[in-house]
Amino acid sequence: MTVLYLLTALGLGAIISMQPAINAQMAVRLGSPLAAATCSIVISLAMIVVAWTAFGRVPISWSKLASLPWWVLIGGAAGALFVLGGIMAAPKLGVAAFFTCIVLGQVVGSAILDQFGAFGLDAQPISWTRAVGILLVVAGAAMTQAQSWLGS
Predict the structure, then answer these.
(1) Cβ neighbours of residue 149 under 8 Å, at least 6 residues apart?
(2) Which conformational region is residue 80 in: left (phi greater than 0), alpha (psi within -120 to 50 degrees), or beta?
(3) Terminal CA-to-CA distance of the chain, rounded, Å?
(4) Is the Cβ–Cβ distance between 37 and 80 less than 8 Å?
(5) What is the pLDDT of residues 16-71, one digit of tens each?
(6) Any idea what the Cα angle at residue 121 is, between residues 117 and 123, rounded to 5°?
(7) What sign does the CA torsion over 134, 138, 143, 144 have?
């Protein structure tokens, strides 16, 4: 079963790599990054509503929704910022450099969250092996931009 999840993650990674380039073209054709981001997110919402309806919809409890901590809203905001940021940054950086920087941000951010045990997670201090891994991702991010920095 783990192999299925790994293949699913790999496939999702391949699909998501297309999103900024496709959405950037939508922005060019619509004349606005915000219009393209809105269109992309409305399509996402429609797909989730269809899936929710098709696979046994559980009613939303408004009292449970109102009792959620404020920070859970970060998840939705992060998705919207990712879509809009990808539309604007990927065409300028290139998709490979964009996603290398995304991965670097994820690795650094997650290491900080682990260090402090944020959002109810168990704290996992940054070890020297994690620090080396983060530095390797930094080197990879720099290498994706080296050609443009060197002018070649």
Answers:
(1) none
(2) alpha
(3) 45
(4) yes
(5) 999 999 999 999 999 999 999 999 999 999 999 999 989 877 888 899 889 999 88
(6) 35
(7) positive
Please, what's the b/e burial string for 48-60 (b: 16 or more CB within 10 A of its CB; e: otherwise)? eeeeeeeeeeeee
* Residue 90: Cβ-neighbour burial (10 angstroms; 0-12, 13-18, 19+): buried
Residue 1 has pLDDT above 80, yes or no: no
Identify whether the C-beta of residue 98 lies closer than 8 Å to the C-beta of residue 86. Answer: yes
The contacts of residue 103 (CB under 8 Å, 6+ apart) are: 137, 140, 141
In angstroms, the Cα distances linking 51 to 48, 54, 113 are 5, 5, 31
Output the pTM of the full model. 0.79
Rounded CA-CA distance 83/26 in Å is 12
Are the beta carbons of 96 and 144 closer than 8 angstroms?
A: yes
